[in-house]
Amino acid sequence: MMDAFAKLAYLLAAVLFIFGLKRLSSPATARSGNWLASLGMAIAIIATLAFEGVVQWQYIVVGVIVGSTVGGLFARLVKMTAMPEMVALLNGFGGGASALVASAEFVKYYEAGGIIPVNFGVAIMLSVVVGTLTFSGSLVAFGKLRELITGRAVTYPGQQIVNALILLAALGGVVWLVIAPHNWPFFIALAGLAFLLGILSVIPIGGADMPVVISLLNSYSGIAAALTGFVINNEGLIISGALVGASGLILTNIMCKAMNRSLANVLFSAFGSEVQEIGPGGAAGDRTVRSLTHEDAATMLAYARQVVFAPGYGLAVAQAQHEVRELADMLQERGVEVKYAIHPVAGRMPGHMNVLLAEADVPYDQLYDMEQINPEFERTDVSVIIGANDVVNPAARSDTSSPLYGMPILDVDKSQHTIVLKRSMRPGFAGVDNELFYQENNSMLFGDAKDSFKKLIEEVKQL
Q: What local confidence, expressed as pLDDT, does residue 299 receive?
């Protein structure tokens, strides 16, 4: 009877997970989707504690208190600009937790000296490999996003061959430990190989591809959790892990399509390892860069019919989302139609710009995906690009020699005027110069984006 109640609770949790994921697909329903998924997880946890024969409650209580405290502090104290790093760490924690649970099961079998069934042996070893790889890879992603290590792709001769050999060695270790499980040194070596593979597989990926890496690591953490569910025979963990793994893979595929690149190209091409040199005057070669004053920019915006804001990671760095919203509200009061153009890979994680603008309470109906907004640019008077670079580079459409060629971009260059807010002429994460900067209908507004928007707000007030 208790087992039946547990399975029923896991089924209810699975239904809530699915509906929660469905509602997370839209900014308008994401909050309720998060609550539904959280409720499902609470039910799964309670069912596990109530029906799975837990006997040592003191450790669980301590874990809940410590974990809740740390999680609550993270949620309250971590700034929105650090959210990609936070997501990377959470992916790593999920993978690490799965690896530890699987390792505990291996230790239990090892100390008992009993035979490990083949199906459990495979699940244990794969959970350790995938979970440990996710943990170390997520730490590297965190370091890149936090700029503790270079965000550029780090490569060395024979890198792919080395990674392939490590992967083969790890798979060989899995097979050997399934056949001969009572081998503690081999188990430690297997975990070490997985840890090393996670580092070496993320190091050669540049900052421009971080949204793909984060969604892929998220999928890995789900797969590790599902494998651990098989290890401890917990249906709730299997279901939730499978959902996370599948949704992460789907999101990874969406990210790759948004860049018109395959997953293999993202993982193995070392995209962004080279940076194109920009001339000392701020322009490449003899091309001219036009700049304008805050007064001129404010006049252009105040008397426009339609203005489109195209945010990028620079907006997150400057923490200027509230100023953007304030300026947009002022423009709307003057009768200007305001929209926001969201590129799928703008920022450092999937949905980064949506989250950033939601913090500033930007209305959901003003956010437009790339496919929705691109037809609008031809009738847009002014497009304001805030820290975005590669996702608005026209070279992606016309320059076959560019590494960006073929990548779908926001067609901001088709607007009557474009204003780019940047600190300098430094290239984006792809390491290539932006053709938009030199077009006749473009003007640069140099400086910190937050300070620039504050000045634009003051100028518009005076018009």
A: 93
